[in-house]
Design brief:
alpha/beta; 5 strands; globular; NadR/Ttd14_AAA_dom; NAD_biosynth-regulator; nucleotidyltransferase activity; nucleotidyltransferase; Nicotinate-nucleotide adenylyltransferase
């Protein structure tokens, strides 16, 4: 894993980093785009989705253990690039903690140590944990429509275990957006 420089422009404590975090098909990407547009800032897309879509398109294969480190490196690189360009606020559509949760879930507790180390750093101002009350939208990369409540509990348990600050977002798209804006406005007013 890449080592981050101690201080670079816009990677100081002044940059508020908000991560959308939670089970698949809970509206994270939609909300990330909405929030970035609302605040006129950058958002970091989910690298895992891009990586796995390319893999599926070329090989008709889904995620394997050997994909975890390249996915983590890609996510960190996207975030690093956006952090250097963002002014006050950066919206992240997932982060390595989500990759850690999925890795441990799908691979019976296995997660590469490099990912665990990076995922458990307190680099974010707040996690917005998306609840499973949104409609399931199937696609080739999503596979657990009946395990959403279980996955939500696993995601929340990881936040509690790490002691990371978080708020749960529930409701329809408009309700989630309004709640997220209230939370982010409070962070920006500090």
């Amino acid at each position: 894993m890449e080592k981050k420089p101690k201080h670079t422009r816009n990677q100081s404590a002044e940059l508020i980093k908000v991560v959308l975090y939670g089970p698949e098909s809970t509206g994270k990407t939609t909300l990330a785009k909405q929030l970035a547009a609302h605040y006129k800032t950058l958002w970091v897309p989910e690298y895992m989705r891009e990586y796995l879509q390319k893999k599926w398109d070329s090989e008709k294969k889904l995620v394997e253990k050997e994909d975890l480190i390249p996915i983590a490196k890609g996510q960190l690189q996207l975030e690093k690039e956006a952090s250097q360009k963002a002014e006050n606020l950066l919206i992240c559509d997932t982060n390595l903690l989500e990759l850690k949760v999925y890795s441990e879930y799908y691979y019976d507790g296995f997660c590469p140590s490099e990912i665990k180390t990076e995922a458990t750093k307190a680099n974010y101002s707040i996690y917005l944990l998306t609840y499973v009350d949104t409609p399931w939208e199937p696609d080739i990369l999503r596979d657990r429509p009946n395990n959403r409540e279980e996955m939500f509990r696993i995601f929340e348990a990881e936040l509690k275990k790490q002691g990371f600050p978080y708020k749960i977002l529930k409701g329809n798209e408009e309700q989630r957006f309004k709640k997220a804006v209230q939370i982010i406005d409070a962070l920006l007013d500090r």
